[in-house]
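Re-run with default settings, no changes from the original entry. Doing this only to confirm the output is reproducible before filing.
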Amino acid sequence: MISAYSGSEYSIVAIKDGVTLTVPRTLLNADYREILRLQTVLIDRRENVYNAFPDLRKIGGSLIGIYSTGAGHANSDGQMMARSDDGGHTWQTKRFFDNATLAYDPSLLDGLLAVGDIIVFKNFSVKKNVSGYSCASHGTVSNGSVKYALWGQPIQHSGILLRTGYGVNGTDTETALLQSVDGGLTWSFRSLIARVAGRKFSEAALIECADGSLLSVIREDGFNKSRFMVWTRSVDGGTSWSSPVQFDFRHINGTQPFLIRLSDNSLLLMAGDRVGASGLNSIGIDHTGQQITGISCWKSTDNGNTWTYRTMIDAMWSTDGGQPVAVQTEDGKIACLFYHAFNGLEEPAVECSIFDPDGIV
C-alpha cells in the first residue's frame, strides 16, 4: 500500500510499506499509478469514427454520459449515451440522438429518473414523463447582438441552475453566465463573466465553493498551443465578477477546463493538456517525462486560491483530446470521462479514468 503526503513540481513524496519514496510524476511509473489508484476504461473506440466531447452525470449510484460521434472533429452525426452501474468500471452504450432523423433514444436512463425529473447533457434536456421522456436540444442564448453557445455542466445555486456560455463580440470572444429557472428546459442571460478588449475567452468551468462564492476557470485562446487559462470569482451569486486573472501558464494551462467540488469541499480542476511532447507514440506507449500531452488535474483546499502541481491522469496522442468531465462515485473516487486520439486524428476514443483524489498532492 502506498500513500502520498506531499508533492513538488516533478515528484510526489509517498510512504510505501513504511518506506519513504520520492516518486516521479510520470504515468510510466508504477508507484505513481498506485498512488492515484489509477484505472483507465475504454468506453468507445471504433475505426474511422470520431468519438469525442463527453458529458457526465451521476444519478443515484449510476453514471450517465453522452458524447459526440461521427466522421470528424466538427462533423458529428449524433450523440451516444453511456451508462455505468459500477462506478465507471464497465459501460453500456446506445445512440441517444441522430442528427439526420432528429430521433432520440434516452432508454439508458430507465429506472433512474422519477416523473418530472429533468437532466441536462451538453445542450440537450431530458424530462421524465408518465408515458416516457421528452427530449429537446437548445441552441444559443442571446444578449443584445451577442449569441452565446451553451457550455459546461450546470450547477445548482440558490434554487436555480447556472452554467456558462461564450460568444463572439466584434473581434473578441467573451464568456457569460446563463441561468435556468425551470430545471434546464430554457436558458437566459444572467451576467457577463469575462470580456477584455483584444482577448478571447471561451470555454469556462463553473463551481460553487464551500465559502459560497462562484469560481469560474476559463480557456483563453490566442497564445499558440500554450492554451492559457484564467480565473474569476463572484461573491454576489453571479451578478458581478472580478477581473480575470491569468494562471502561470508554466504550471496551469489547458483546454476545456472542468471543476468539481468534492465531498471534503476541496476542488479539482481538470483540463486537456496540449503542451509538450506527444503523450502516446504510434503504438500507444506512454512517453517518459512530465511535459507530455494528456489530461491534467490540480487540487485546491482553499476554494481555488491556491492549487497543487500538475498531476496527469492519462496521456494522449499528439494534441487531439481533452474535455474532461468528472463525478465523485459512491466510494469517494473520481470517474472522469474524456476523449483522446491514439495513433491518428481520425480515431479518437472516449475513455473513463478512475482515480483516488487523495493522490492529487
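The CA atoms of residues 76 and 185 lie 23 Å apart. The radius of gyration is 20 Å.
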